[in-house]
Amino acid sequence: MYLTIQETAEYLSIEAYKIKALVLQGRIRSIHDGEQYLINKAQFTTHFEQVEKYQRMIQEYLNEPIPEDIDVKDED
Predict the structure, then answer these.
(1) Could you tell me which residues come within 8 angstroms of residue 19 by beta carbon, excluding any fewer than 6 positions away?
(2) What domain of life (predicted)?
(3) 32-41, long-range: CB within 8 Å, 24+ apart, which pairs?
């Protein structure tokens, strides 16, 4: 499914001028049909999957208990 720049901006919750800049920089793949840029929505699924993966990893790290320090009980 192809989206316009405005539709992509709404989908990603980013302002349209930023999407257009990313398209012009080549950081978002698009097709220009002579009038407007069309962006394939499927290219963002990998991005969202990676973001969710990193969020889970960070949450697991934050939930990990702090280990006891071995030297705390040492009274030399």
Answers:
(1) 5, 8, 9, 12, 28, 39
(2) Bacteria
(3) 36/4, 36/5, 37/4, 37/5, 38/2, 38/3, 38/4, 39/2, 39/3, 39/4, 39/5, 39/8, 40/1, 40/2, 40/3, 41/1, 41/2, 41/3, 41/8, 41/11
pTM of the model: 0.64
Q: What is the pLDDT of residues 27-73, one digit of tens each?
A: 999 999 999 999 999 888 887 888 899 999 999 999 988 877 766 66
Distance from first CA to last CA of the chain, Å, rounded? Answer: 69
Reading the block at residue 7, the tokens are 């539709």
